[in-house]
Design a protein that fits this description.
CATH topology of one domain: SH3 type barrels
Number of strands: 5
Order of helices and strands: HHEEEEEH
Number of helices: 3
CATH class of one domain: Mainly Beta
Structural class: alpha+beta
Largest sheet: 5 strands, antiparallel
Length: about 110
């Protein structure tokens, strides 16, 4: 029997023949938590911003946010007891000053 040579190119030959592809990585999935909610709550808490909280049943509550956690917020009120509200029961919330400015901007024909 004779010595047989394997017909296999070396790695260097392959690299010369087929240039390396640009290593394009897949886009990473967006983060689960952006911390936007935390930032918003902290900003309103520090400024003691007067807020209007509208619940899923349509009830409007006014006060400022004292603290929050993952599932609820504590709303302090001036002439009423403070409330602990579950976030799932909140439809939306906004600054009370936005309500006042909206009333001022409304044309006289609508009033």
């Amino acid at each position: 029997m004779s010595d047989r040579k394997l017909i296999r190119p070396s790695m260097n030959e392959l690299m010369d023949k087929y240039p390396a592809r640009s290593t394009s990585r897949r886009k990473q999935a967006p983060a689960e938590q952006t911390n936007a909610e935390s930032f918003y709550y902290l900003k309103q808490m520090q400024n003691r911003t007067a807020m209007v909280v509208v619940l899923t049943d349509g009830t409007e509550l006014r006060g400022w946010i004292e603290w929050y956690d993952k599932t609820c917020i504590k709303l302090n009120r001036v002439d009423a007891p403070n409330l602990l509200l579950f976030k799932q029961s909140i439809k939306f919330m906004f600054k009370e000053e936005e309500l006042r400015s909206r009333r001022r901007r409304r044309p006289a024909a609508e009033r």
